[in-house]
Amino acid sequence: MSDHVQKPIIFEEDHLPPATIGGSTLTFLILAGLACMATLIGFTDLGPAKVWVSLAVACVQGIVLTVFFMDLRHGDKLTWLTAVAALFWTFLLFLFTITDYLTRQFFAF
Amino acid sequence: MTPATHAPAITPSTQVLELDYTPQTAPPVTDLDGPPAVNYLNHAHGWLSWLLTVDHKRIGILYLIPLTVFFLCGGIAAGLVRLNLLTPTGAILELDQYNKAFTAHGTIMLFLFLIPVIPGILGNFFVPIMVGAKDMAFPKLNLLSWYVWFGGAMFFIAALLIGGLDTGWTFYPPYSSKYSHTNVLFAGLGVFITGFSSILTGLNIIATVHKMRAPGMTWGRLPLFVWAMYATSVIQILATPVLAMAVSLLATERIFGIGIFDPTIGGDPLLFQHLFWYYSHPAVYIMILPGMGVINEVITCFSRKNIFGYKAVAWSSVGIAVVGFLVWGHHMFLSGQGIYLGMVFSVLTMLVAVPSAVKVFNWVATLYKGQITYEAPMLFVIGFIVLFTIGGLTGLFLGILGSDIHLHDTYFVIAHFHFTMVGGMMFAWQAGLHFYWPKMTGKMYSDFWSRLAAVVMLVGFSLTFLPQFVSGYHGLPRRYPYYPAEFQLWQILSTAGATIQGIGYVMPVFYLTASLFFGRDAGANPWRATGLEWQIGSPPTPHNFDELPIVTHGPYEYALPSRYALETEPHHTTNGTNGHAVAGNGVTSGH
Amino acid sequence: MWLFLVTEVLFFGGVLCAYTAYRIWYPKEFEAGSTALNPLIATINTFLLLSSSFTITLAIRSAYKGEHAGLRLWLVATIVLGTVFLCFKAREYYGDYEEGLVPSQQKTLVDTVDESGKPILKEVSVFAVNLKHVLEEKEGKAKAISDKMTWNERERVQIFFMFYYSMTGLHVLHMIVGLGLLVWQLILAQMGFFRPTERYIYIEVMSLYWHFVDLVWIFLFPLLYMAGIHSVEHLHF
């Protein structure tokens, strides 16, 4: 056996200290504010627009959560790639399946 | 640690002396290297040392044994189906027994054999060695995923033993929800659990390829098998969860008797098919990609040439992994999905033929002007290329919306996917098994019997499935136990072929087992291949590499024999009769 | 861990895709189903989960700084918040069960009229009857929704409820796993496993999972609970 011990470096060396308390609190407050908004939307009658508005709020919340709490902003390229891949493949799943439901009633001839 | 790019300086004068372009063809008659005194097989003893091992090589062997058993089980089920089809009214089975037999064949072969076979055995065994690592990135997770897989497989087998399963391998509701009286739940759980194992293995392989590469092992120097395994793992990670969800929803429906695929409350059974094929179409690439990876390793070795178009082959693996997700609707052309969506899927299906064809053309180009020898692995590879090409081309008939209306759910489809799955994957697996057997066990099997087995399999396979193209084209539908009498000739031919094929598949079990006891020592590098895995002893030592390997050039440098022979001077002879210092092995030792 | 989360995204992606497909088909039924749910508990739970995401970030920081007391405090806080979430969730399921909002094959007979306006006896599921009661009790717009629905449409609300149970059920399962991981981290912390700037990566990786569970809820909340019409007067536990 040689002197070289091949150590698996699974987790990237993370030299960045974790988020400050102030930063975390701010993130939390933003998220809580957005949650209040989602609730408000839930209790009002916006008709068909409601689902879009509430989903938009949820997306903003999701982005804040992943970028700040899950620390994606300090992630390396690979982490970003992974996150984008997840979204992209979910998009593919939706794209074709929902296309089916939207076009099924059209007949070609 | 030496920087990755360090390579020994070669002055022009030494080059003139050392370059020897005589391709080295015949394997060495004698090999002075015995197996390493301490290797992964003998460094620990007893059942527990196997069942609690975290050594990726031992885990590979742990997969090998049950997988062989499952393959034989699935083969027996296929045999029952074929025997029953000897006469137009069913020769031996009752109707529901026939349903259970073909379901058992399909499910065992797909979920318990084709999907795990190469990732589980060769992937586990060789990916860490090929990237120059001592083990997987997460050795314990690797063992866990074997246990998870084995547990899931046991669920599956239990479901098949207590009452069987009659839904077909696709579990379409309402066959699987309202109208099945068999153990769909158990089987679904089995699929769910083995799927989880598949995800864990995929994670492990991706992490290994990213993080565990030896110094100098750049992405451009990875063996193409590793590229293929990487692409496979990506598919496993992205596709399997959707199947898990589909099966969970199906299970909910089955348990509560009411669910979202139930048309009586407004549900749509087609939705299950969407979710199912989102996994199961990419899953056929989970099955075939590792096989294609093996082909690269074998074909370069036995034609003594570098692969033609390394980058094209590597990226076509990735391309298949991506495009494979865009075509699932071609399984549903006639199921009632939107006709325009069907057109889109039809066009996209043509697209996936491109990367597959890139691979086939590159393999053929690799053969061109190579010094080809026909050892058993090479025979399997040639079988693969021929059969896979037929399978791929007939796939186009089915991918075209118009012709699929005629061919849908006929024996033509059966023949098509058996040509890709058996003619492709099964042959690739045999090629890989025969290629790597000396490395895995340190023993050489019978040359004569292995070549004979390859020929028998090829003949048997062709005889089984070529007639099915004809009967399918004439409209014989699949999955029925009865058929019109005019098709009997084709069915008898198929059954005869299946019998020959069966003999072919049993042969390796005997001669490979025999080689363990009577085979001669294979030596470190019986095929005189250039990959990293051939530069270590056979069977490998527990930690693969005694010294950290430093990789200085690509995996298939067959055209540059002896280029780095200076590094291993004591063993080097110019005509290459000594087994382990030949053919630009691409490895030097770190300091 | 990110790779594992990809599989989780696609796992929930599968059921969300199914949800979307049916919501396109049956918008009215989904609205009615959502209206019958309990928005108060859901709202409280949203804030609980967000807070637990916050506390776990603080736990990472404490682990990094080597503040043992802080680490334990924040881990315990996260566990408590998660557990309270589950308790509320259990209460909610119990409420749904009491109201009879569980899809089943049980049938009953109701008086209704056919297309020509002739009174007939119709066999409908018990679920549909219960749903009618629940919506009528909520009065106002909820009742208006219910009055406009035919019995067949009420039957189809069962699909919404299948989604409701499977999505929240899977979410609860994930939470239970997450709580198990948290307890394990707490035990490790108790044993002095974490030292300043070392090994805090364990908590960080586990926090990714916990945040993901939160993320799922962020989407379930508008899709399941807030898709209907709720009014403040009828909030109850």
UniProtKB/TrEMBL annotation, chain A:
Listed InterPro entries: Caa3_sub_IV, Cyt_c_oxidase_su4_prok
CC per GO annotation: plasma membrane
Topology term for the membrane: Multi-pass membrane protein
Keyword match Transmembrane helix: yes
Pfam families named in the record: COX4_pro
Cell cycle keyword on record: no
Residue stretches spanning the membrane: 20-44, 51-72, 78-102
Keyword annotations from UniProtKB, A to Z: Cell membrane, Membrane, Transmembrane, Transmembrane helix
Location in or out of the cell: Cell membrane
Protein name, entry field: Oxidase
Species per Swiss-Prot/TrEMBL record: Limnoglobus roseus
From TrEMBL, chain B:
Signal peptide residue numbers: none
Record-level Gene Ontology MF annotations: cytochrome-c oxidase activity; heme binding
Compartments where located: Membrane
Keywords from the UniProt entry: Electron transport, Heme, Iron, Membrane, Metal-binding, Respiratory chain, Transmembrane, Transmembrane helix, Transport
Membrane topology: Multi-pass membrane protein
GO CC list: membrane
Domain spans labelled Cytochrome oxidase subunit I profile: 50-552
Bilayer-crossing regions: 61-81, 108-131, 143-165, 185-206, 227-251, 276-295, 307-327, 339-358, 379-401, 413-436, 448-470, 490-518
GO BP terms in the entry: aerobic respiration; electron transport coupled proton transport; respiratory electron transport chain
Domain of life: Bacteria
Residue span of region Disordered: 570-591
SUPFAM superfamilies hit by this protein: Cytochrome c oxidase subunit I-like
Pfam family name, one: COX1
Principal subcellular localisation of the protein: membrane
Family: Belongs to the heme-copper respiratory oxidase family.
Protein name: Cytochrome c oxidase subunit I
Organism the protein comes from: Limnoglobus roseus
UniProtKB/TrEMBL annotation, chain C:
Domain of life assignment: Bacteria
Compartments, record wording: Cell membrane; Membrane
A GO molecular-function descriptor: oxidoreductase activity
Pfam families: COX3 (PF00510)
Entry keywords, A to Z: Membrane, Oxidoreductase, Transmembrane, Transmembrane helix
PANTHER family the record matches: CYTOCHROME C OXIDASE SUBUNIT III, NITRIC OXIDE REDUCTASE SUBUNIT E
Name assigned to this protein: Putative cytochrome c oxidase subunit 3
Taxonomic source organism: Limnoglobus roseus
Record gene name: ctaE
